[in-house]
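ok so I'm stuck.
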Amino acid sequence: MRIGIFTDSYKPYTSGVVTSITTFKEELERHGHQVYIFAPSYPQECEPEENVFRFYSLPSPTNPDFALAIPVLPGLNMLVKRLNLDIIHVHSPFTMGRVGLRYSCKYGIPIVFTYHTLYDQYVHYVPVAQELAKEVVIRYSNDFCNHCDHIIVPTTEVEQILKKYKIRTPITVLPTGVPLHKLQKGNSGWLKENYPIPEENKVLLFVGRLTKEKNLEFLIEAFRLVKDRYPHTTLVLTAQGPMEGELKHLTTRLGMNLEQDVVFTGALPFETLAHVYHSADLFVFSSMTETQGLVLIEAMATGLPVVAIKAYGVQDMVDHMVNGLLTECDLQEFSNAICTLLADEELYNRFKEQALQKAYNLSAENAARKLEEVYQSLLEKNVPRKPRLLDFGAWFGS
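replied:
not stuck anymore, here's the structure
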């Protein structure tokens, strides 16, 4: 198959969406498919990649690391026509998703949409009228869903949300798989070799973005409580994002230092992440807005038990009292869960084994096979095209 992927974020930007796209791309290409990426350009240099077409872009005013694509590319119409795509797969209902929908309608190409994000949970980036913005975003994304031929969601929880919104388009629950071969081996001493973390310290790890929706103030405050009970512990945040300065200030204000207590590594390439995961003892996750939380499965693929807040997306990935502990968004409960696993070696080792099994069941190979089946079913059905334009009146309430 010839598959066109339209996305509002791609390498070198780091996020769960980008990881999902690159993981599926590699697996689909290993299965013999041709994958073409249509994505924003970024000011930071990145290696040219075959079959990746970049759109001019501008930095987002609320997150300068994120690029906003200008949905115009000279010769794009002829390019799409020449590529003779079998499937268009979009990963956002916004700028690049609209571009993908336009060419799906123009050339009668089946379109799949992966609903990665609960978009209404991100309206804190809008400086005013957030409740109105939330309503508009929900109506817009719902209308976009109903103009696609198939929707992929990473968890059953997101599927239930979309059904509550009365989405008419068929939905398949398909988590992004983990490339196990990239994570099975790693240097268990990497973090302590590269950062001044005391040898005797247990390492708690978070991987993600330093943004408000990740609830990292909560995580650092909870770690302060853990540190009071278990002084020989270090929290490592492998991430970058607009809240880095604010979080570092919070760390020092709570009486912890930025070398041995809370370590900010910045973003690291995926090849290095395997070493980071293998040199940690426990994965901690405080986000409350995930649709999947892919890093949870990456961590489990290296044998890390998880302590996380019971939230959308997380509950499908982490099985409470099987491979991790899930808590309410309560500082005492969360810190107690961490301390429980630090203190109980038998429980820790049992969770470790179950974490490896969970990750095996969610391998990238298995996920790619299921995505192929979705694509093939659309081609065999020869689905009729939906109307060409989004119904703006519907999502504005007119």
